[in-house]
Design a protein that fits this description.
By secondary structure, this protein is an all-alpha fold. About 70% of the residues lie in helices and about 0% in strands.
Length: about 325
């Protein structure tokens, strides 16, 4: 048996990584808003950069296509406007002008364009969520890194978007069909009408409930790297127990941001349409692009709020994660935590 000094392991060849990430902790609405603003302030380049890379081309292409697709709509509206201007006071309005050629095709094209644009916006939100998560967890986000992350998860994002849309749309169709059928069988009154209205109201509440429980799917996809069904289930469980709180966030943030964006968009549209034709295709494209760019200012903030809410809900579930390892040569991020 040796009684000499204890043997110590040799010193490491490289310094140990510095722990500068942040563990989960409760966040109030005020704290979430404050941290969201600080995140955007100190990491605005990668966060707004990844949003601009995806959304600006979308706004330009969508605006150009809308000016072409909407031409039959606006041609018909222009005919209606001219007809109303020629009416004398007290005269009986004549029949509406006939629909121009390509009217129904334009409706189908508008629906397809809306679905495609919605998918691109969903993917853009996911890329922004990744950049925000990287920043909040103590790493340095980059435009290339977030674009690469969303490219790797693209099929998952499209799958969850399709599943969510089909489930909610299917529920609405079945519920409203059952409600209308009950009202029709009850001859528009009595118990049948009451049951039909009850079914319709319950359908709306069920669709809203499902939408709330799946509202954090982009976070569960991008910040946890789950598959489609696992992401849906994960969002459902994370929001579980806090459904009303998440609904409150959706209402408050949606109303505030919506009011600001709509006000700015209205002012911009008034400036764009001053002295121009009411149905000018170039004006339609310009309005679409300007409206999109105004919305782009607030899209990262909304994603930051709900990403931080996602971290808060995880803490409330008892998921206390250790700090993220960061190399010692990289200084801590300056927005606090």
């Amino acid at each position: 048996m040796s009684y000499g000094p204890p043997a110590f392991p040799p010193p490491p060849s490289e310094p140990a990584p510095q722990l500068t990430g942040r563990s989960l902790h409760p966040l109030s609405l005020t704290r979430i808003v404050e941290l969201s603003i600080r995140l955007l302030r100190f990491q605005w380049r990668p966060i707004y950069g990844v949003a601009a890379v995806i959304l600006v081309p979308l706004y330009v292409i969508s605006g150009a296509l809308q000016s072409i697709i909407a031409e039959p709509f606006y041609a018909w509206l222009a005919d209606v406007q001219r007809m109303l201007e020629q009416l004398t006071p007290g005269a009986v309005p004549p029949d509406l002008p006939p629909l121009p050629a390509g009217f129904y095709e334009a409706i189908v094209a508008s629906i397809v364009l809306g679905i495609a644009a919605g998918a691109v916006v969903y993917v853009a939100n996911a890329a922004i969520v990744h950049a925000i998560g990287e920043a909040y967890e103590g790493r340095n986000p980059s435009i290339r890194g977030s674009l690469g992350a969303v490219a790797r998860r693209l099929l998952t994002l499209l799958a969850v978007m399709i599943i969510t849309g089909l489930v909610i749309a299917g529920l609405m169709v079945l519920g409203f069909s059952a409600g209308v059928l009950a009202i029709a069988l009850g001859d528009g009154g009595g118990l049948g009408a009451f049951a039909g209205l009850l079914v319709i109201v319950a359908t709306v509440f069920a669709a809203v409930f499902i939408g709330i429980r799946w509202s954090l799917v982009p976070q569960t996809v991008m910040l946890e790297d789950n598959g489609p069904l696992a992401s849906l289930g994960r969002s459902w469980s994370v929001v579980g127990g806090s459904t009303l709180r998440v609904l409150g966030y959706l209402i408050v943030i949606g109303l505030v941001i919506g009011l600001i964006v709509s006000s700015l968009t209205t002012v911009a549209n008034q400036l764009l349409t001053a002295g121009r034709l009411a149905f000018d295709p170039a004006m339609i494209a310009a309005q679409s692009v300007v409206g999109g760019l105004i919305g782009l200012i607030f899209v990262p903030f909304t994603n930051a709020v709900f990403s931080l809410l996602y971290y808060d809900l995880r803490w409330r579930r008892g998921e206390l994660t250790p700090p993220v390892e960061q190399p010692a040569h990289e200084p801590p991020l300056p927005y606090g935590g």
